[in-house]
Amino acid sequence: MPPKSVVVTGSNRGLGFGLVQQFLKDPNVEHVIATARDVEKATALNSISDPRLHILQLSLGCDDSIAAFTEKVSEIVGDSGLTLLINNAAVMLPYVTKQKPDRKIVNDLFEANTIGPMLLTQSLVPLIVKSAGRPEVSTDRLSISRGAIINIASEFLGSIGDNTSGSGEYKAMAYRMTKCAVNQFTKTLSIDLKEDHILSAGVCPGKVQTDMSKGKGEFTKRSDESSRIMSPGSVVVTGANRGIGLGLVQQLVKDKNIRHIIATARDVEKATELNTIKDPRLHVLPLAVTCDKSIDTFVSKVAEIVGADGLNLLVNNAGIAVKYGSKSQLDVNTTSVVVLSQKFLPLLKKAASKVSGDQLSVSRAAVVTISSGLGSITENDTGSGLFEGLAYRMSKAAVNMFAKTFSIDMKDDHILAVNFCPGWVQTDMGGKQAALTVEQSTSQLVTAFNKLDNSHNGGYYHRDLTPFKF
C-alpha cells in the first residue's frame, strides 16, 4: 500500500520534484508535503494544482526552520502521524584532496547533507512513531505505508567499497564523505527504531539527468609487495597528550630509526605524561585541530623540524566521542582530519619524492587515521547502542571514506592512506572496562604501520592488520 502522508525535502527541482509528481499520481496518498528553501522561487512546484500538495519552507541548516516545519507538518497530518519521510535535499560542492584546505566548504557540506537531514529526521520521528503505532496495524511488518524514513543515497559516491575514482571528475571527496555518513545514519536508525516498527533505508536513484549528475571512473588497485619494510624518518601524532595518542608516542620512541617524533596537545603545559618523556627526538607542540590558524602555525613548525626531508607519516588520532554533538564531532573527527592532511601535503609529497618507484610505505609518505569499529556500516548491528553513538558512528564512517578517496587521489604522488580500528581500549573514551590496555593496542598498531604497502592503500584494518569491513 502507498503511504498516507509523505514529506519530500528538496522538492523544488530534480529528483525531489519528480518524486512529488509521482506521489500525486496515486489517489490513495492524502498528503504530499514538499519543501523548498524559497517557496516563491519554486516555480515548477507552484504550477501543480492539487489540494493534497502542501509546499512548505525549510532550511535544513536552521534549527528554527526545522522546528517550524515540524509544527506545520503535525497540523497537516493530525492524529494519523507522518507515514513517510524522504530525505532528498542535498548540495554538491567541488572539493578535492589536492586543493587549498577549506574548512567552511567541508563543514557546509556536512551541515546540508548530513547534520540537517539527521536533525530533521529526529524532529519528525514522534510523528512517524505515531503513524507506525496506529491501532489498526498490529503486526511487526515494516513498510512505507506504516512508518518509514528513506534517505536518498548516491550510486557510487557514498559507497567506500565501490570508490575506485577518488575525488573523480566531479571533485567529490567531501560529498562522498557526507553520503557515507548518511549511510551509517540510515543503518543506525534501522536498529534504533526497530521496536517502533519504523523502516529505515537508503535508496540510490541511479545516474539521473539533474543539476547534480554523477559519474564513475575506473581504477585498478595494485597488490604488489614492498621489497623493504622500514621505519618512518619523521612522524606526527595528533591528540597525543593521553590515551591512544600517548601510547603511540611511547611505542614510537622505542624505534631508534625514527629521527623526529612530533606529538600534539591542545595545551602543552597540561600534557603531563608527554612532558615526562625525555628524548631529544620528541617535539611536543600545541595544536587545536578545529582552528585553521593553529594548524598553519603547527605545520610551519613541523616544516622547520623535518627540513628538506619532508614528513613521512601523519597519524590522525585526535578525536572526541560524546553522546550527541554531531556538529562538533564532525568538525573534530572528520573535517579537521581532511584539513590537516591537506595542509601537510607539501611536506608529504616532499618526503615521497625522495624515493623512486611506485612503492608505498610509512617510510616513504603516509597518512594513517585512527578510526573506530563504530565507523563500519556493515558491522553496525547495535544502532546508537548504549553509548548513544549515532553522531560518532557517522563521523568515523565519513573519515573512512576520506581515506579511501585520498588514497586514490594521491596515488600518483606515492602517498599511502590507511585507516585503523585500535580496538576497545582502556582510555577515557573506552572506559576502564575495555578489553585492551593502551600498550596492547598501540604496540600492535605501530607494528602494523611498518608493514603497510601498496596492497593496503585505501584500506580499513584492525590493529593487527586484519581487514575490517566498511
Descriptive notes:
The protein is α/β, with parallel strands linked by helices and 470 residues long. It has 2 domains: 5-203, Rossmann fold; 234-462, Rossmann fold, CATH 3.40.50. The chain has helices spanning 14-24, 43-46, 63-77, 103-132, 173-192, 243-252, 272-275, 292-306, 326-343, 345-352, 390-409, 438-449, and strands spanning 5-8, 31-36, 53-57, 84-87, 148-152, 199-203, 234-237, 260-265, 282-286, 313-316, 366-370, 416-421, 460-462. Helix 5 packs antiparallel against helix 11 (390-409). The chain is elongated and about 75 Å long. The model is unreliable at 214-228 (pLDDT under 50).
CATH H-level name of the largest domain... which superfamily? Answer: NAD(P)-binding Rossmann-like Domain
The portion of residues forming beta strands comes to: 5-15%
Shape assignment: elongated
Rounded mean pLDDT is 92
State the distance separating the first and last CA atoms.
Answer: 34 Å
Strand order of the largest sheet: 9-8-7-10-11-12-13
Strand count: 13
Stretches where pLDDT is under 50 for at least 5 consecutive residues are 214-228
Which class of the largest domain in CATH terms?
Alpha Beta
Taking all Cα atoms into account, the compactness measure Rg is 24 Å
CATH architecture of the largest domain: 3-Layer(aba) Sandwich
Secondary structure category = alpha/beta
How many separate domains make up the residues? 2
Would you give the CATH topology of the largest domain?
Rossmann fold
The number of helical segments is 12
Give the proportion of residues in helices.
25-40%
What string gives the helices and strands in order?
Answer: EHEHEHEHEHEEHEHEHEHHEHEHE
